[in-house]
Amino acid sequence: MARDFLFVLGSSRADGNTEMLAHKAAEQLPAGVGQRWISLAEHPLPDFEDLRHDSDHVRPEGDAAALLLDATLAATDLVIASPLYWYSVSAHVKRYLDHWSGWLRTPGLDFKRRMAGRTLWGVTALAHEEEEVADPLVTTLNHSAAYLGMRFGGVLLGNGSKPGDVLNDTAALARAKTFFAQEPPLARYPYETAA
Description:
Blueprint: E1 4-9, H1 17-26, E2 34-39, H2 64-74, E3 77-81, H3 91-104, H4 111-115, E4 119-126, H5 135-148, E5 151-159, H6 170-178
Parallel strand pairs: 1-2, 1-3, 3-4, 4-5
């Protein structure tokens, strides 16, 4: 199956450090690998309304939610590019992940089965030198992938605060060259053991 990458940009700033780092990693993908880039700031989602105990969700049509749903289901590889905001994903990304809850309950969509086996990746820029402060973001993405039976490629971390700072992080740029070349394992919760 041909690989098709969807880059979901979660920053509130265009061309920020996270997006720059994601582009550096994407430059290493082989020719012929599909790439689609969607900015959540340019395609804002409404707040998620939890209807699971009230009524069925309906498949979105003709709006940002429909665009993102279709793009998500079309991708073999989903890259969440979110700056580290208050030690986790951005509000844009959190809202996108919340919409997954509705898609899980949309009749006829079979979202969980269709996402199983695909790969979730993360890219983030953070202002701290200590990368462990990004652990909550990494955990959010890993557990989301584990719940859906996806593979998890980890998170490419880069350091940067002012626009363009990440381009001075030589270690992150080196990691970007091989980030998508790895064979990611099936995502697991911490209490699970690898089979």
